[in-house]
Each structure stands twice: as structure tokens, then as C-alpha cells.
Amino acid sequence: MDVRTDYDSAIEIYREWLVEGRDAVDLLNTVDKKLFDLAHHLAIAHRNLAENRAELHSLFAWRGERNRQNIARSSEAIEALLSVRDELFDLRFHVLKRIETLGQLQRVTAAAY
Q1: Cα dist. 106→17, 26, 70 in Å?
Q2: Could you give the dihedral angle defined by the CA atoms of residues 98, 100, 102 and 107, in that order, rounded to the nearest 10 degrees?
Q3: For the segment 20-47, what is each residue's pLDDT rounded down to a tens digit?
């Protein structure tokens, strides 16, 4: 299973919501929850990588090829998750800009009355 599949579909939906003009604060909360979920998966991938590296250099070296494959998979997963993280932070930046713009519009509207 590709690590990015669920995250890519979520990011696409969030971008659509941003374009549709959904409530920016709710969208920000949703993106933050997805970032929290991603951080959890990233921590697990780092732990798996560390465990496989430690096992490769331990008494279980006879399983070296299997550990090398696991290390490669963990490294690829981490790279994919970091890429998704960058996309989510980019989306978060755009949502924050929308909130800032709405706040400025509210101040202008309040000053007009």
C-alpha cells in the first residue's frame, strides 16, 4: 500500500473546500488534525527504521537482507510522509492567509459602520 494514497485524497478534498470557500477556521482545524495524524505515522516509521538499523548491527545480522529491505521501505515511507507534510503545511499557509484576509475584511466592514 502506498503511504500517500489516503493523504493525497484528503489534501485534494481540502483544496476543493478552500476553493469553494468553506469556513476557513473549520478547514484549519481539519488540516491540523491531519498533520497530527501524519506526525503519528512519521514517528512510527522512524521507530521502525531505527529498530531495523539496530537489528542489522546486532546479533541478528543473519537476517541482514531482510533488514536492508525493511530499512529501504521505511526510508521511502518517511520520504513520502515528509512530502505530504510539506503539502499540508502549504495548504495550512493558504488557509491562514484566507483567515487573515477575512479578518481584514471584517475590520474594514466594522469600521465602515
Answers
A1: 21, 18, 53
A2: -170
A3: 999 999 999 999 999 999 999 999 999 9
Do 30 and 13 touch, CB atoms closer than 8 A? no
CA angle 58, 59, 62 (to 5 degrees): 105
Residue type, 67: N
Distances (CA, A) of 72 to 44, 51, 52, 99, 107: 15, 13, 10, 41, 52
Q: What is the pLDDT of residues 45-85, one digit of tens each?
A: 999 999 888 887 776 566 667 778 888 999 999 999 999 99
